[in-house]
Design goal:
The chain is of the alpha+beta class. Helices cover about 40% and strands about 20% of the residues. It has 27 helices and 30 strands. Strands 6-5-9-3-2-12-15-14 form an 8-stranded mixed sheet, with no helix packed on it. The longest helix has 26 residues. The chain is globular and about 90 Å long. The relative contact order is 0.06. The N terminus is likely disordered. Bound molecules: zinc ion.
Length: about 900
């Protein structure tokens, strides 16, 4: 918990007459008049201890005369602070920590003229308990220290100017126990051993200019694997040392990601024409970590489950490892080489990395279908962007909550979709040239959205038109809904387009936003098709087509546009007939048009259900399952004792034969799409519609893995790698206390994070009330790492039988639960306990409970507001469609028909 104020801190005898603070505490950005130029940090870190210690020297330029400097520090016990002027003379200085806000105030005895001064601090701190700043992880008898500074946690590690616009070189020195391995952003350049031979002091090379949030180090009994250096090429003259680092015993599982990495680095070098910016590349898998991974310059830190793979890993895990690695490596250019000046532009970092990662995946692993995966994520972002309370991509930052909630689907997926849409409109070559120009202009410095848009506007020659169009997507929330109608007269054709905001049923927007939407449209003529793009800027516009009247058209060619569309009935019918001629992403857009028409209350459930057979047989997993989220909503919210069994039988009939044909184990040499589809279908059949045949097979695999049915010992590799998590869930659901206890027993000795996720999901998924209670309490014990907790609780909430008890338990254990949540996870707390809620009363219940507590959750107000809106939207649609919405369909599908 933050303390209100730290004791006064002195370096020199405190002279009387320190002026009281004349200016107020900066709660947003720090003032402009003090700029850090260089940091020298010396930290003493023993992961077996409870605390670490540090000394920080910061060279600061004062732009104008002042008697104080504001910077950041939080939860640091500063025991000594001092200042030195440009001539090397000491200046009496007093430091006061405003710990609630994380601001550190250093006040001098008298006003200093503009000059360069040095501030120095000696401090100690406890390792952080929420995976921020410098924290420790225990794995069996081993202890590790790991860092996570983004967004505003460097202030837990050292005093500094903790804002992204300040980029400076850092000199880092670490004193660590002799037997430990220590790594940092740069290559190690010196090592000394203490006279008692118990400690070593490591010096690391001066970094390139970095913001505080990209500083990183790690200490512990790590395995380190030296890979061959990444070879020089036409863009880069020197080879780059490459290493993989993981918890003790993990060395072998680093091999695959190290093999993949050089091609990823080269891909971005070719694209950006900028060499990899740092002196080495380390990929480190931490045994507990809050986010998926963090792009620290030269030392990328991952959850170890997202870095380590071997022959027993799921195919999904391989794909995730590749994607996440490609994302973090992209950040070395987008974010690290060029850094956004302030958090309102953090979308640039994340949108770039997400957009670039998909490019790398498509180029290097076409069998992963990266474009479909990206599209599925864009459609997901449209879901959250349909809330009236959705964030803007470029949301103003008013406090820490806005910073911590900025890392959401709007930032990553909508941001990436916008980049992709304008790339597709301008052409790949123009866009690449603009990106190159932007990176070259701002290398090792800062670049904002305005800087990027200026580069794109200049290179494309589209100037103000482009600028206005891009800003219309960045500076206002929402998904455009494009209504379109084709007019054909005497061989001449035109397209009438109009725009409004896409909103679900019953939601009324107050204003009428306008976007500048590049509507690229595919026109079908006989056996061929071509594409024409129109920039829709007004509420409604008419565009003349280059060619004669088409047979059909799709107003989102290649599915690259970030908008939804609504076709005149006749046009939609023609498109439906031509659907087989569309590419896979375009077919997904077509399915999304159906799902979103249902969300708007314009079509009933029968139309969605009747469209399912046309997709159920698809080989691509994203297509085969495109309508399942809508099916699940219909099943849960509209289904009753009569109709739900009919819906389940219908879905089983559609999907179970497909799964049976794929088989329940991965076959040698099968395409990755088959493997991914098997996992998705098994998940749906076993856990949603609870198909007895699928469950029996999964239970069999899970029981053998847990040591039942003659297996005698536990060996999780006995289950199919891709179905392990599901198999354990079903085995625990069906197997009662003995299976539950076997999973818990295995957790006590298993240190493989990916396997632990499966085991924790299984404990959470039990539907036995007493075992579910045991699972909930277990999730708060030291046996479960902080980053693992959500596996258990999410699985618990996914089972409707557990929801009421979980809600009650949360209220009884609220403080203990909240205190384990990392900062950025706090805003998600209301949503994480709201699954299945779909009535005004249940929204009121959530609202009433959280209202008095929300101020203590970072970003909680936004998280709660969106959760409540979600529940109320659900309630409105449910009321609109009503259970009668299923009446006609269920009559037609009742047994005997
Ligand atoms: Zn990222």
């Amino acid at each position: 918990m933050p303390r209100a104020l730290l004791p006064l801190l002195f370096a020199f005898a405190v002279a009387p007459g320190f002026a009281a603070a004349a200016d107020s505490l900066p709660t947003g950005k720090l003032p402009q008049d003090a700029t850090p130029l260089h940091y020298a940090l010396h930290l003493t870190v023993d992961p077996r201890s409870d605390r670490f210690a540090g000394m920080a020297r910061i060279r600061v330029r004062l732009a104008q005369a002042t008697d104080h400097v504001w910077l950041h520090a939080q939860k640091l016990d500063i025991t000594q602070s001092s200042a030195t002027d440009a001539a090397g003379h000491p200046i009496a200085a007093k430091a006061t920590a405003h710990d609630d806000s994380g601001v550190l105030e250093v006040r001098f005895e008298h006003k200093l003229a503009p000059q360069q001064i040095e501030l120095a601090f000696t401090y100690g701190a406890a390792f952080n308990g929420q995976l921020e700043g410098v924290y420790k992880v225990k794995v069996g008898d081993d202890s590790y220290a790991v860092t996570q500074m983004e967004p505003v946690s460097a202030r837990y590690a050292f005093p500094g100017f903790d804002e992204p616009r300040f980029k400076t070189p850092f000199d880092l020195t670490l004193s660590v126990p002799k037997q430990d391995v220590a790594v940092a952003n740069t290559l190690q350049v010196g090592e000394e051993t203490s006279t008692d031979a118990k400690w070593k002091t490591l010096r690391f090379a001066t970094t390139k200019p970095l913001p505080t949030y990209l500083v990183a180090f790690a200490v512990g009994p790590w395995d380190v694997v030296d890979a061959p250096p990444i070879a020089a090429n036409t863009v880069r003259a020197n080879p780059i040392p490459l290493r993989g680092i993981g918890p003790r015993g993990s060395a072998k599982k680093l091999a695959w990601v190290l093999e993949q990495t050089p091609a990823i680095v080269k891909f971005y070098e070719d694209y950006t024409a900028q060499p990899y910016p740092f002196d080495k590349l380390d990929l480190l898998g931490a045994p507990d970590f809050a986010a998926g991974a963090m792009e620290n310059a030269g030392l990328i830190v991952y959850r170890d489950a997202y870095l380590l793979v071997d022959e027993h890993s799921a195919a999904d895990t391989y794909r995730n490892v590749f994607n996440i690695n490609a994302h973090e490596i992209a950040h070395q250019w987008y974010g690290d080489l060029v850094t956004v000046p302030w958090w309102d532009d953090i979308w640039l970092n994340e949108a770039y990395a997400t957009w670039a990662q998909a490019k790398a995946t498509v180029a290097l692993h076409p069998e992963y279908y990266g474009a479909l995966e990206a599209l599925e994520a864009h459609l997901g972002a449209m879901g959250s962007d349909s809330l009236l309370s959705a964030r803007k991509v470029r949301q103003p930052i008013l406090g820490r909550g806005d910073i911590e909630t900025a890392f959401d689907g709007i930032t990553y997926e909508k941001g990436a979709a916008i980049l992709g849409m304008f790339e597709s409109w301008l052409g790949d070559d123009v866009f690449r040239q603009a990106m190159r120009s932007y990176l070259a202009r701002h290398a090792f410095g800062s670049g904002s959205a305005d800087d990027l848009i200026a580069s794109i506007a200049e290179v494309s020659g589209k100037g103000e038109t482009l600028r206005k169009a891009m800003h219309s997507f960045l500076d206002q929330p929402g998904v455009p809904l494009i209504r379109s109608e084709l007019m054909c007269k005497e061989g001449k054709a035109s397209l009438q387009l109009s725009q409004s905001r896409f909103l679900p049923y019953g939601v009324l927007g107050k204003d009428a936003p306008r976007w500048g939407v590049p509507v690229c449209t595919r026109f079908g003529h006989g056996a061929t098709s071509d594409t024409q793009c129109f920039l829709l800027e007004q509420a409604a516009q008419s565009f003349v087509l280059e060619r004669a009247c088409p047979d059909w058209y799709l107003p989102n060619a290649d599915a690259r546009g970030y908008y939804r569309f609504d076709l005149a009935a006749g046009d939609l019918g023609k498109l439906g007939v031509a659907a087989a001629k569309l590419s896979a992403p375009e077919q997904m857009i077509y399915a999304d048009a159906l799902a979103s028409a249902f969300k708007r209350g314009e079509i009933g459930p029968a139309l969605v259900l009747d469209a399912m057979p046309s997709l159920a047989g698809a080989e691509l997993p994203q297509m085969a399952t495109a309508l399942l989220p809508t099916f699940e909503w219909i099943r849960e919210q509209l289904g009753d004792a009569t109709t739900r069994p009919l819906l389940d039988a219908y879905a089983i009939h559609l999907y179970e034969p497909h799964l049976r044909q794929l088989g329940y184990r991965r076959k040698d040499g099968e395409p990755g799409t088959a493997t991914a589809l098997r996992t998705r279908l098994a998940q749906f059949l076993a856990l949603i519609v609870r198909d007895p045949a699928t469950r029996a097979e999964l239970a069999r695999q899970g029981r053998t893995a847990l040591g039942f049915d003659g297996a005698r010992d536990t060996d999780l590799t006995r289950a199919d790698a891709d179905l392990l998590g599901l198999a354990l869930k079903v085995a625990v659901q069906e197997g009662g206390a003995p299976a539950f206890e076997a999973a818990q027993h295995e957790l006590a000795r298993n240190h493989d994070t990916a396997q632990r996720y499966s085991l924790l999901g299984a404990l959470g998924a039990t539907r036995d009330p007493a075992l579910a209670a045991t699972a909930r309490d277990y999730g708060l014990s030291a046996a479960v790492q902080i980053g693992e907790m959500s596996r258990l609780y999410r699985a618990q909430m996914n089972e409707p039988e557990n929801r009421a008890a979980m809600w009650q338990w949360l209220q009884d254990h609220y403080e203990a639960y909240r205190q384990r949540l990392p900062a950025f996870a706090q805003s998600e707390l209301p949503d994480s306990v709201s699954a299945g809620r779909c009535s005004g009363t249940s929204a009121d219940e959530v609202s009433a409970y959280f209202a008095p507590r929300i101020k203590d959750l970072i970003g909680g107000e936004r998280g709660l507001g969106q959760t409540l809106e979600d529940i109320r939207q659900c309630a409105a649609l449910r009321e609109h469609v009503g259970t009668k919405g299923l009446a006609g369909w269920s009559e037609a599908h009742a047994p005997g028909h």
